Amino acid sequence: MTKKIQDASVIVDGGYQPATVVLKKGVPAHLSFKRISEKGCLDTVVLPDFGIKEKLPLNQEKVFTIDTRIPGEHQFSCGMNMFHGKVVIK
Ligand SMILES: [Cu+2]
């Protein structure tokens, strides 16, 4: 039996679009961030609940594998904790 993978993507353009990503619990997920502007200080994304702190190259998709076993709201932010979004797992 193969497990499906769910995909979600966020555009980073002076903020996060969308700022809320909903994922289904227990289904492996790929979450991508694509930064398309130099606005703000969004060149780093931090997802503390998943141990992720990574640079976002301009105009390139950066894909993270998200552990969806833990339901709830998981915040993400820019490197300076000024811009925010969240991953909701349910
Ligand atoms: Cu910032």
TrEMBL record:
Organism superkingdom: Bacteria
Domain annotation EfeO-type cupredoxin-like: ranges: 10-89
Coiled-coil ranges per UniProt: none
SUPFAM superfamilies: Cupredoxins
Protein name (database record): EfeO-type cupredoxin-like domain-containing protein
